[in-house]
Amino acid sequence: MKNNLRESIPGAPLSENPKTVVLTGASSGIGRAIARRLLECGYKVYGVGRDFGEEIWPHGFHKLIIDMKNTGSFYDQIRGLLKRENICGLINNAGAAYYGLHETLNPAKIHEMVTVNLEIPMVLSQLALRDLKKNRGHIINISSVTAKQTNPHGCAYGATKAGLSSFSASLFDENRKYGVHVCTIHPDMVKTNLYRNADFCQGEDEMSYLTPQQVADAVMYVLSVPESMSVTDITLRPQKHQIRRK
């Protein structure tokens, strides 16, 4: 079957029958960088986000403007999209993060992290699997290095990312016989606005943080490997470890 994400050549223009990818959290940061790279490589991208501002996007990008916390409406939109489009890739990138002592978090913040970081990737994967099996497609989940360690001052966030990583590993074993590729990318600190709700951020030295473009490059690598091989886990770390207090 020749309807695979890997067929696209980096830098190729949008083809007459582009491969279609659904990408959450596409309006900024890592998601925006991934969307731009996919478009450069000839993919058709349905990008989910709350606010895309007035940025002009290239041909092939389709905005799905919605608050993902409104899960009922969001899932209905995705079901409608899957009836119209032949999906070859799902990239679960959207994330919610609140930091601090666990006792200081309120239930609404905990619920938001569980919904955005774990529930939505699980449900979207379930909805898309029929197309992905047919097309021998990809699910790429953007997790975090926090999934692999303890996380004082980020207990709930780390738990949701650990859950996402565990789900990804099991989903691959369940679906590898159908040709579905599942990869989890675990970035360390990336220079984005994810830390807007924290009292810390990345260091000033550019060697102490990753860029959204570097994570996007990892996504494109996953999509480029031979069909006989699956990349299931990538961890990305900056060369230096440095955190700056705000």
How are the secondary structure elements laid out?
Layout: E1 20-24, H1 29-40, E2 44-49, E3 61-65, H2 71-84, E4 87-92, H3 107-135, E5 138-142, H4 155-175, E6 181-187, E7 200-202, H5 212-224, E8 233-236, E9 243-245
Provide a descriptive summary of the structure in words.
The structure is a single chain. 36% of the residues lie in helices and 18% in strands. α1 packs across α5 (212-224), α2 (71-84) packs parallel to α3 and α3 packs parallel to α4 (155-175). It contains five helices and nine strands; from the N terminus they run βαββαβαβαββαββ. β4, α3 and β5 form a beta-alpha-beta unit. It has a single domain, classed as Rossmann fold. The protein starts with 19 loop residues before the first strand and ends with a strand. Strands 3-2-1-4-5-6-8 form a seven-stranded parallel sheet, sandwiched between helices. It has a two-stranded antiparallel ribbon with strand order 7-9.
Task: Tell me briefly what this model is.
The chain is of the alpha/beta class. 36% of the residues lie in helices and 18% in strands. It comes from Catenibacillus scindens.
